[in-house]
Amino acid sequence: MIVTTAQLFQEAYGRYAVGAYNINNMEQALGLFQGHIEAQAPFIIQLSKGARKYANARVLEAIIRAVESEYPEAIFAVHLDHGDEQTCYDCIDSGFYSSVMIDASHETFAENVAITRRVVERAHAKGISVESELGMLGGVEEDIKVDEKHAMLTDPDEAQAFVEASGCDSLAVAIGTSHGAYKFAGSQGLHFDRIEAIQAALPGFPLVMHGSSSVPQSEVQRINAAGGALNPNAKGVDDSQFGRAAKLGVTKVNIDTDGRLVWTRVHREFFRDHPEGFDFRTPGKEYVKAYADFIVDKSRKLGSAGHLEEVRAAVM
Predict the structure, then answer these.
(1) Cβ contacts of residue 173 below 8 Å, gap of 6+?
(2) Residues with Cβ < 8 Å from 85, sequence gap 6 or more?
(3) What does the domain layout of the chain look like in residue ranges?
(4) pLDDT bracket for residue 316 (50, 70, 90)
(5) Which residues are catalytic?
(6) Number of CB atoms found within 10 A of residue 136's CB
(7) CA end-to-end span of the chain, whole Å?
(8) Is the Cβ–Cβ distance between 178 and 148 less than 8 Å?
(9) 256 labeled binding residue
(10) Which CATH number is associated with domain 5-315?
(11) Which listed residue, 103, 127, 193, 260, has the most CB atoms within 10 A of its CB?
């Protein structure tokens, strides 16, 4: 059952975070639903501009609808990730999305507010929530590339002013994460003092953490052992910190890279061990199971596992 992002946030705020996962194909959708049913957790499906170009937006929407019919007990929202203004309008007008993210964080503060306000007015007219971003994460995700030297943490006072001026419903904040597989060096991690300050400036307001894949060392090592050439020092977010962040108002946690790593590991190992193989359906089935297992583990770390029936009672 598709619900609004706002409904999920209302249930989760201050207690747990809702996992938001990007998908690009059928196998990811199947693993996502299967894993969340096993975990009994609500979730958010994210479609990025890149995914909409890769698989065609309407095809992805049809896949979600089809998989939903196989897992009717699932409760989830559908979200546009890192949209520009025109893509936000396309998603709003489609009637399929629960929420959209307008990413104008690369613009000046005033222009970011103006663009977000325009999207908010159009979205709210149709009951759709809007996520915006303030501050800039470093790293690479699809067509988004920000050098680490240009990355900057979100200023709490600016966050409060931005939310009041733009009218957005949730805010993606830069608190030490970054996009892609190469997130941290040394002992760098989440800036909890910054999260606390932002929550104090915006009490009760849903915060979003982007770039939150954990980049498990085991996945990197197995990929490289099967012929990959990933940086062995790749390091992500310590998912044991999710619970602490959730209690400070981080209500949505975006995870994309990890799903790609699981996909790469399963397929590299399969074709390494079966060089005669050519039927991609066999590793595809293995991936669905592996991704579902990954989702169950992440749901536990986010604290969302076991809340499905409670959310159902609240939204029905």
Answers:
(1) 133, 134, 135, 154, 159, 194, 195, 198, 207, 208, 209
(2) 102, 104, 115, 118, 119
(3) 5-315
(4) confident
(5) 81
(6) 18
(7) 10
(8) yes
(9) yes
(10) 3.20.20.70
(11) 103
Alpha helices (H) in the chain, listed in sequence order: 5-12, 26-39, 49-55, 57-70, 85-94, 109-124, 156-166, 192-201, 217-225, 242-247, 257-273, 281-302, 308-315
Token pair, residue 143, equals 């067509």
Annotation-wise, does 150 bind a ligand? no
- Asked whether 159 and 171 are in contact (CB, 8 A), the reply is yes
Contact 198, 154 (CB under 8 A): yes
67 pLDDT higher than 50: yes
Cα 249 to Cα 2, 40, 173, distances in angstroms: 23, 22, 11
| Residue 149 pLDDT grade (very low, low, confident, very high; cuts 50, 70, 90) | very low
d(CA 221, CA 238): 17
How far is it, in rounded angstroms, from Cα 312 to Cα 299?
17
Do residues 175 and 153 touch, judged by C-beta distance below 8 A?
yes
CB atoms within 10 A of CB 282: 13
Calpha distance 192→16 (Å, rounded): 16
The CA distance from 90 to 84, in Å, is: 10
DSSP class per residue in 91-135: HHHHT--SEEEE--TTS-HHHHHHHHHHHHHHHHTTT-EEEEEES
* Residue 36 assigned as binding residue: no
Beta bridge mates, 254:
20
